[in-house]
Amino acid sequence: MAVFRSSWRCPRLEHPRSSVAAGSVGIGGNQTGIYPTAVPSGWRIIGITPVELFDIEKKQPSLFSPGHYIKFFPIDRMEFVSIKKFVAEDKFTVTSYDKELGE
User: Fold this and answer.
1) Which residues contact 12 (CB under 8 A, 6 or more apart)?
2) What DSSP state is assigned to residue 86?
3) Would you say 58 and 37 are in contact if contact means Cβ atoms under 8 Å apart?
4) Mean pLDDT, to the nearest integer, of 43-65?
5) 3-state secondary structure string, 2-71?
6) C-alpha span between 63 and 52 (Å, rounded)
7) What confidence score (pLDDT) does residue 82 get?
């Protein structure tokens, strides 16, 4: 997704995992990424989103496009489960906003 400040830099794992869950948020070196599907990874997993990032059946299969800014918010387990349920029932909407210049 992006390159970020060097103080957050995290070395990749010496032995990559055989699979990380879809929606996992990871750091590898000085880059971040969100995994849209379950895949092998050597990055450090720092969180997970309950929001579905990719669905081939949708008109717009990818939730994000190049140039989008993404902001994460901490949620507790109960809220995670609740959002996951709404996503499964197609009752959850992600709202996006244009990034203001100078933010």
Assistant:
1) 28, 29, 42, 43, 44
2) H
3) no
4) 89
5) EECCHHHCECCCCCCEEEECCCEEEEEECEEEECCCCEEECCEEEEECCCCCECCCCCCCECCCCCCCCC
6) 8
7) 97
- Closest by CA to 1, choosing from 64, 51, 45, is 64
- Per-residue confidence band for 6, with pLDDT thresholds at 50, 70 and 90: low
Closest CA to 51 of 75, 84, 95, 26: 84
Residue 4, pLDDT score = 62
54 forms bridges with which residues in the sheet?
62
Could you tell me the pTM of the whole model? 0.76
Residues in the chain: 103
Most confident of 10-14, 25-29, 64-68, 74-78: 74-78
